[in-house]
Amino acid sequence: MQRRGLLVGNWKMNGLIESAQELVAAVRAGVEEREERRLVPEVVICPPFTALYPVHQWLSGSSVKLGAQNLSAGPPGPLTGEVNGILLRNVGCRYVILGHSERRQRFGESDSLVAAKVTAAIRDNLVPIVCMGEEASERDEGRTLEILDRQLRAVLEWEGLRGQLCSKKRCLVVAYEPIWAIGTGRSASVEQVSEVHGFIRRMLTEFVGRELADKIRIVYGGSVRPDNAEGLFAAKDVDGGLVGGASLNGQDFLAILDAFGRG
Ligand code: PGA
Closest residue (by CA) to atom 9 of ligand 1? Predict the structure, then answer.
């Protein structure tokens, strides 16, 4: 089954309006130029909340899509400081990153909170990009697949969620992001990524059946750079990348996009 490649830029807590405009213009132009020559993977930019609406406007008419980095699972109402999926859709978001390790570790997001957020995202017509991955000590102890099993199972076993992973148009996306590789410059090896992605695909197959599991994209994140993207994207069951640091540089991000074609 041929899944369309997916490249997601996670700007994290970066993106002042002036620099964001330049970066978006560069990415947009680079994607358009490539589209004239070939089929490019789907590209999604995830700026901080404050830049979502201007980025949406700068992307108007472009195939590049907009995503947020988090959401609140609650309905509209008195929740000071929170932003739910309805508000995100209203400023043009199509995707939302959920369960990033920085949120799990620094803001105490549990497996069940992540599953509740995934449910809320789907309800509000957003495609969730659900992040999961092990810490260095867990890998050293040989517990990587056990951790992935727990994190993925929490989503797949959440009430009613299993039947909603794919809409007519789109399926949820799973991002494997080993915590020790995020922002460290030390990416996981192709063998490590292949093993985990294969495991995730088998688990998805077990829970939702082959046909649906084959539609779900599994992307890798953790120090993806222009010089290692090609090898990673060529690996079996790797459908693309979730890129942090390198997505803040237009040239690097586009060089990573080019790695798909060669993979
Ligand atoms: P990185 O971040 O590319 O800077 O390692 C990836 C991520 O956290 O999504």
Answer: 244
